[in-house]
Structures are given as C-alpha cells and as structure tokens.
Input
Amino acid sequence: MTSPMFEKIALVGIGLIGSSLARVIRREGLAGRVAISTRSAATLKRTEELGLGDSYTTDAKEAVRDADLIIVSVPVGSSGAVAGEIAPALKKGAILTDVGSTKASVIAQMQPHVPDGVHFIPGHPLAGTEKSGPDAGFADLFDNRWCIFTPLPGTDPDALERLSEFWRRCGANIDTMDPQHHDMTLAIVSHLPHIIAYNIVGTADDLESVTKTEVIKYSASGFRDFTRLAASDPTMWRDVCLHNKDAILEMLARFSEDLAFLQRAIRWGDGDKLFDLFTRTRAVRRSIIEAGQDIDVPDFGRQAVEHPSKN
Ligand code: NAP
Output
C-alpha cells in the first residue's frame, strides 16, 4: 500500500462515481480519512452500511471542513448549489474538483463560489455504467479509462499535477483540454449516443404493431445494446442535455443530415453507398479495440466490464 496522498478527502455525492472513488481510495490507501456527504438520509444510511468512508453526513459543509481534496460527484445541474453550500468551509490550499459530464456549464456554476486560495480544477472521468447509487460503484471503474481536466487559466501546476497523480493512482489516464472542446467532443462520443438510445428505445416502446413482448423477446438482434445506454440515470442525463445544449444540438443536426443521406441510399437502392459506410464504421470499432477502450468479445464486452465484486 502506498502512503496517503491526502490527509483528508471529502466526497460530496456518493452515487456510482463517488462510491467508486471511495472504493479505489480505500484500496490504494490514497487518503488518511474519507468524509462522505450526500443529500438524502436514505443514501447516507446505505453508504454507512457499505462502510465506504470514515465519517458520514448530509451536511456537505461539515464533510469538506479541513479536507485537502474535495470531489463533487453530483448531477451537473446541482453543481452550482453544492459549490455555494461548501464554499465557506473550504480550506485554503485545498484542491476542489468535480466529475461532471459537462464542463463549461459546471465551471460557470461553480467558479464564482470558489474562495481565493482554493485550487478549483474541473475534471471528468470517462468511465461509467448505466447504474446509479452507492451500491453501483466498484474500485476498478476507472482502470485504463481517461480522466479529462479542463483547467482554468492560471491553474497552479503543482495542484494540477497532484490531482493528476491521484487519478493515475485510481487507474485512469490523464488528458487536458479546454472546456468547450471537451463539451463538443463529449457531445459526439457520449451525449449523442445516449440520446439516440433513449430515442430508439422510446420509439420501440411506442410501437403498437409489434408487441412489447416481441421487442423484449427478440431484443438480442440489436435493440438490447441500445437499452443499456437508455437505462442510464434520468436525472443525470436530463442535466447533461440541459447543460451541454449547444454542442448537443450541433451534433444532432449533423446526425440528422447523415441519417437523411442513409435514408436516401436505402430508398434508391444505392448498395455501394451503404457498403462504403458500413465498411468505414467497422474500422472505427477495430480502432476502439486497438486503443484498449473495449474488448473483442461478444456482448460488447459488457460482461467483462460488469465487475463481479462490486463492494
Ligand atoms: P448517482 O449515482 O445518481 O449519484 C448522485 C449523487 O448526487 C448522490 O449522492 C445524490 O444524493 C447526489 N445528488 C443528486 N441530486 C442532488 C442535488 N440536487 N443536490 C445535491 N446532491 C445531489 O450519479 P453518478 O452516476 O455518480 O453521477 C455523478 C456525476 O458524475 C454527474 O455529474 C455525472 O454527470 C458524472 N458522471 C457520471 C458518469 C456515469 O456513467 N454515471 C460517468 C462520468 C461522470 P442522494 O442519493 O442522497 O439524493
């Protein structure tokens, strides 16, 4: 076990991401102690039963007091309110970070509350599942996944390096980019796929000519792979859509144009166009496997990703 990187880490929000952090922090011995806060008494009770930290409270201010590293893991639409709540209790010299799936909006919401002398470094680990809550987390979640920082101008390089080292010890690889670039990139690699999945599953659910039983029974033909994304947390994804609006609308416009192209090729029996596109997209899948971002087994690697020991 390595020596603790931080004397006290405060985890504000203890769902899938917060609880995965709690587990990997414990496994790697990254903190002297871990203080956990969450909004509801029910989640707090469950977190305590799971033994994820050293102290538990529904008062975020109390959790962050004296903490050297504070990680906010709440839906992006709540990050401003949370920042406002904890700001008066933040210690000078502490690092404040978040894990939100959108960055420009989180920065706009949180930055105005950050007191002088606190290092605010926005972050986003590109790791997750469709599950939520403290039972859903697991220590390996961040293994070989990317954690993107969108540092603000004037960020202290030492604080950034400390936070990077923390995430490396959690298993992640580090990248940095500006918030707008992050939001545009994530709109295509994450937000649009989720929206398409929500849409297709909604369409299938609305169908009356095909029964619901048939949709479920024959789902392994392709539909099933969309249902995993479409089972993702409604609050989180509502907030992502509302807080990355411009980039998502841009990607949706491109998507609709390309879909019309595909529709036209099908209508006019243009097999060459279809074959060329499907060949190109197959190569993208190969590149993802080569980059170690999935494994080449049936089921899109889900069984392997679904870690057996979730505690
Ligand atoms: P989650 O499992 O649903 O947990 C959410 C946590 O935030 C819980 O502790 C919850 O408290 C708290 N919370 C919810 N609403 C709140 C509010 N209005 N004010 C204060 N606290 C509130 O969520 P998650 O999947 O860990 O996601 C957390 C963050 O990580 C989000 O910003 C998301 O965009 C980002 N993220 C998610 C994924 C993913 O795949 N899930 C991946 C990367 C990043 P109670 O349970 O006590 O109400």
Remarks:
- The pocket of NAP is lined by residues 13-18, 38-40, 43, 73-76, 78, 82, 99-101, 124-125, 128, 132-133, 233, 236 (CB under 6 Å).
- The two ends are 19 Å apart (CA to CA).
